[in-house]
């Protein structure tokens, strides 16, 4: 069974990013274990936690648990809004935490997919490009074209949070299928 970790770049329970993630989970094959990995509890990154010369600061157990979860994943799927034309702070914090220690980077060579959205028309373009830039440092394999930028995201859901636009659902399914192919090639 392949394990996929989904990171949602919004902490709000009712966020559109979380709704998108919840709609994506059933699009994976049945032999995939796909879960949202919560990042709301992660303390802000501080290199003192990982600096062997700093002995009076303990590594938060949340860091260790998060890093081990990412390392045990066969692929990482990001669903993120755009905040002020960039990556939401909570998601950047998670990226930074997974990037240390340098000798054991959790993200290294992990296949990844990214779906971005915004309530406006740009679909989270800037957040996705900034996230891709941050992840490129870790030699992560990424699903290519077409990229997914969902603009006007509130219009995609019914009252229960289900996708109500069939063309968008099919577009996301195609992207998930291509992500699964990338994960399989990386196995």
Describe the structure.
This protein is α/β, with parallel strands linked by helices and 187 residues long. The chain has one domain (6-186): Flavodoxin domain (Rossmann fold), CATH 3.40.50.360. The chain is 34% helix and 15% strand. The protein contains five helices and five strands, in the order E-H-E-H-E-H-E-H-E-H. It has helices at residues 16-24, 61-71, 89-98, 125-136, 166-186, and strands spanning 2-8, 32-36, 75-81, 112-117, 148-150. A five-stranded parallel beta sheet has the order 2-1-3-4-5, sandwiched between helices. Strand 3 (75-81), helix 3 (89-98) and strand 4 (112-117) form a beta-alpha-beta unit. The longest helix is centred in the C-terminal third of the chain and has 21 residues, at 166-186. The relative contact order is 0.18. The mean pLDDT is 93.
Task: For the structure shown, list the relevant keywords.
five-stranded parallel sheet; Rossmann fold; about 190 residues; alpha/beta
Briefly summarize what is shown.
The protein contains 5 helices and 5 strands; from the N terminus they run E-H-E-H-E-H-E-H-E-H. The chain is an alpha/beta fold. It has a single domain, classed as Rossmann fold (3-Layer(aba) Sandwich), CATH 3.40.50.360.
Helix coverage percent = 25-40%
The CATH top-level class label: Alpha Beta
* Mean pLDDT rating: 93
Helix/strand order, N-terminal first? EHEHEHEHEH
Please identify which CATH superfamily we are dealing with. Answer: Flavodoxin domain
CATH architecture: 3-Layer(aba) Sandwich
**What shape does the CA trace take?**
globular
As a whole number of angstroms, the C-alpha radius of gyration is: 16 Å
Relative strand content: 5-15%
| Poorly predicted sequence stretches spanning 5 or more consecutive residues | none
């Amino acid at each position: 069974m392949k394990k996929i970790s989904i990171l949602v770049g919004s902490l709000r329970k009712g966020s559109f990013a979380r709704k998108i993630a919840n709609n994506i989970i059933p699009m994976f094959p049945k032999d995939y274990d796909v879960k949202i990995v919560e990042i709301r509890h992660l303390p802000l990154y501080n290199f003192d936690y990982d600096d062997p010369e700093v002995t009076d600061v303990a590594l938060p157990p949340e860091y260790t648990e998060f890093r081990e979860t990412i390392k045990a994943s066969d692929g990482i799927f990001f669903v993120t809004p755009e905040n002020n034309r960039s990556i939401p702070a909570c998601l950047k914090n998670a990226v930074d935490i997974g990037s240390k220690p340098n000798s054991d980077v959790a993200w290294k060579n992990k296949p990844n997919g990214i779906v971005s959205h915004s309530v406006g028309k740009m679909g989270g373009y800037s957040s996705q490009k900034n996230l891709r830039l941050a992840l490129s440092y870790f030699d992560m394999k990424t699903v290519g074209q077409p990229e997914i930028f969902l603009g006007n995201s509130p219009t995609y859901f019914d009252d229960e949070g289900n996708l109500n636009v069939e063309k968008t659902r099919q577009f996301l399914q195609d992207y998930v299928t291509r992500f699964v192919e990338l994960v399989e090639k990386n196995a």
